[in-house]
Amino acid sequence: AEMAAAESGCDMSEAELLAMLRGIDADKIKARTEQELEDKYGDSLTKVKAEPASGGGGGSGGGGDDSSGRSGADDSLLAAVASAELSSTDAFLKSAPEDHTGSKSDLNQYWYSSFSIQKLVEEVRNECSPGQPMRVCFVSTPSLFFSLSLEERRPHCTVLDFDKQWESDPGFHFYDFNHPEALCESLHHRFDMVVIDPPFVQEACWRAYATSAKLLLAPGGKVLLTTILENAELLEQLLGVKPNVFRPSIPNLVYQYHIFTSYESTGLSVVNPEVGEL
Asked: For the chain, which terminus, N or C, has the lower number of CB atoms within 10 Å?
């Protein structure tokens, strides 16, 4: 998860969180999700499952054969990461290192890998109308917002976050999910897409983010979010989203996230070579 609000009613210790997760019927949800993915992607998903993953959890320098089910576009992204061409993403990750023991530990900041950031940014670009300005709100996802070029994100893209280290950017708006409706009126129903990665996985936190998302979205707008698979039923009820095949790599997070969308995604129908298959 990317950002947190301090003094949150959703805040839990890691031990409490893991205890909560153990009480969820994850097998039931996983079985249902696998069936939905099968129905959604059919033969392409079957093909991906039949091929061996190329080193789940490995970075851009992993070996093995090229049988991960990834597309040519994915190969290009991996090559770009390896050759340090992702300057915006790299600059962000260097300027905002994770802090889990110091003054920002309560923010619960965990960044996606460079490859996963670029895959998600590519997805956002693909889902925006060609030839039209991008109108996307990045809620608690600053790594994605700042991986866009200046031309792409100005003047119509916005990042909402609790951490004020980015408040000098014209696209920044302070956001505290404890007050989900406290959004500038100029942001109401303005965005064609909302991208969300809350700091916590609990239901109360997600209900707050869903309230904000509905205020931000224009009619017919799309939602992309990341969280644990155990939240699948809740999020389908709140925002009409379902999980995809591609799962993001978050190197320092102890549990695996999934990507959920309110639309069918071709770009996210492949396995992430960093993570492997479900």
From this structure: C
* Alpha-carbon gap, residue 107 to 87, rounded angstroms: 25
Among 162, 167, 157, smallest CA distance to 192 is for 157
163 burial class (0-12, 13-18, 19+ CB within 10 angstroms)?
Answer: buried
**Structure tokens of 145?**
């917002």
* Start-end of H helices in the chain: 14-22, 26-41, 43-50, 72-82, 87-95, 114-127, 142-145, 150-153, 203-216, 232-239
Length of the chain, please? 278
Note the pLDDT of residue 114: 94
DSSP 245: S
- What is the reported pTM? 0.72
The per-residue pLDDT for range 154-177, each reduced to its tens digit, is 889 999 999 999 999 999 999 999
How many Cβ atoms from other residues are within 10 Å of residue 83's Cβ?
9
Tokens of 266: 């071709």
Residue 50, SS3? helix
- Give residue-wise pLDDT tens across range 26-64: 455 555 555 555 555 454 444 434 333 332 222 222 333
